[in-house]
From TrEMBL:
Residues 1-21 form the signal peptide. One of its GO terms (biological process) is long-chain fatty acid import into cell. InterPro entries: AMP-bd_C, AMP-bd_C_sf, AMP-binding_CS, AMP-dep_synth/lig_dom, ANL_N_sf. Its EC number is 6.2.1.3. Pfam families: AMP-binding (PF00501), AMP-binding_C (PF13193). It is an enzyme of class 6 (ligase). The lineage of its organism: Eukaryota, Metazoa, Chordata, Craniata, Vertebrata. This is long-chain-fatty-acid--CoA ligase. It comes from the Eukaryota. PANTHER family: LONG-CHAIN FATTY ACID TRANSPORT PROTEIN, LONG-CHAIN FATTY ACID TRANSPORT PROTEIN 6. The keyword Ligase applies. It catalyses: tetracosanoate + ATP + CoA = tetracosanoyl-CoA + AMP + diphosphate; a very long-chain fatty acid + ATP + CoA = a very long-chain fatty acyl-CoA + AMP + diphosphate. Keywords: Fatty acid metabolism, Ligase, Lipid metabolism, Signal. Residues 92-414 form the AMP-dependent synthetase/ligase domain.
Amino acid sequence: MSKVIKLFYMVLLQLSPPGSSQLVTAADMTLSLGWFSALAAGVFSAHVLQKLLFPYFWRDLLFLMKVIRYGVRLELFKFTSSVCTVLDRFIQQAQRIPNKPFVIYDGSVHTYRDVEQRSNRLANVFFDRVGLRKGDCVALLMSNEPDFLCVWFGLAKVGCSVAFLNTNIKSKSLLHCFNCCGAKTLIVGSDLFECLDGIITSLLEDNIQVWAMNSQSEHTEVHTLLDKINTASDQPVPAVLRVTTSLKSPTLYIFTSGTTGLPKAAVITHLQSLKAAAGFWAFGATEDDVVYIPLPLYHSAASLIGIGGTIELGATCVLKKKFSASQFWNDCRKHNVTIFQYIGELCRYLCNQPKTEVDKFHKVRMGVGNGLRQDVWREFQSRFGNIKMCEVYGSTEGNLCFMNHIGKIGAVGRSNFFYRLLFKYELVKYDMQKDEPVKDECGFCQRVERGETGLLLSKVSTISPFFGYAGGKHLTEKKLMRNVFVKGDAYFITGDLMAEDYEGFICFRDRVGDTFRWKGENVATTEVTEILGLVDFIQEVNVYGVEIPGHEGRAGMAAMIIRPAHTFDGKKLFEHVMRDLPTYARPLFIRLQEFMEMTSTFKQQKFQLVQSGFNPSMISEPLYVLDYQQKNYIPLTDSIYQSILAGERKL
């Protein structure tokens, strides 16, 4: 270090003009050498100290600065006459890069101009022929396809809010969805019209008009869209229809399984949509990236983060109708995919595929998603290359988001002193047996120590608002906990048990309450309980999730009491769950009991049932397993149990 400083002074001596009063003397050089040496030593020591004690300081700071910068941009909308929504951003991109591919689907390329013009045609049809007006709510039941986006954008251009319906939901739940979001119009994809079998009459009786993405319909009261799109104008409808002056205006309703049983319509405002659209950008994505979206568009991950993020960047997305593990990497290589969206199960499916010599031959550099187990994470990167996996934690309706921008294996998010200043969250002690938070003598919650597991709560504030659910204030209130630490405060209940280590990494531990996750979907146990309760031989039923080694999430299991003078009928139960429950919500295991254990607050006791699992050698009560081949619930034997553990039996 001193040699460098001496060399620097020698250069100064050579450059100083003869006779100048600014000449550097030997004494000056000696004095300054000591000062510079001390400064350099101090800087070096501080650098080493920062690396040892705060190794992620600069990466955290730069990431947080990006987040703050975007947040300031959103705050500025409050001082302007209008908000630049995700739709507005799409229209801007369509004008800036009209010929750039926006969506690649099933071998076809749809440019930004293509989607812009087709959504204009649909907007004109919606306004002139369907009679939709600004403020109307429209339900959308469609699979992943480009027309999902065109219909979505077309409705938004008219000023309508859109309710995305889960394509797996059945009759009772489907009717419920219309009631809670107030939709009086349904647009259904051509391949999903059969989902309306049995309820089309009820929809029409409720004065809900049904429009199908077909050219003709066998049902006289079902209207068609495709024949009207071709003759419609591709000129934009008046921009005033879509203009909004508030970030808090609802733009979407996305249904999520909560603790109340039937699906709940989470209110998605423009603020939430814009925040989600910044996800890819925050992780370092650019307009040159190609994003692979194999997740369903009715979920917020694919629609808000995936499509919204693609639009924000001006990038290209490859949309898949349905995830295929065998086609995934070939698709990525064919379309030069650089980023893909995932849920934990998706990555596990990819790891279970036969190994090939070209596993690492691709351009994928980043994955963005949630629910990735540590073992799968390590195996995925070992097999397919050092792909940066960016975990994002947050529920559709929640007011808190964690982002693991560091990429540390096993962490769902990253926190630090600066993050806590902006976003107030707490981990509180939770009693699993009583199924409730632990309170002190004053009735307030107790924070856990660093490294301990606790229930994650997020404070509701102007910075982190909670917009709740459509269909009644009581639904929103059930997700809030009041008087948590002081009188008058309010926190959003995530329902997740988390732990934060000493470096600030946040890890998911488990879910509490009446929801568990299976095959990438949230399962509301009370909804399944209500549907199973319709079976004539069931007197009482308690639904919960059990862990299966090698599988992400928890598989459904139902403990039930049989009515007097009745017997368990596996075939009848099989037919019932096949008809009325989506695949991911069907109980895989049944446990017959003589009586149900209850908590002190008269809730069904799930803790012991979850802990005991489904091992027939450890449980004396009769156990049954869902068997698709025999179309029955058959006795769960030890050999079947072992085949499940070995991964030999398809679940």
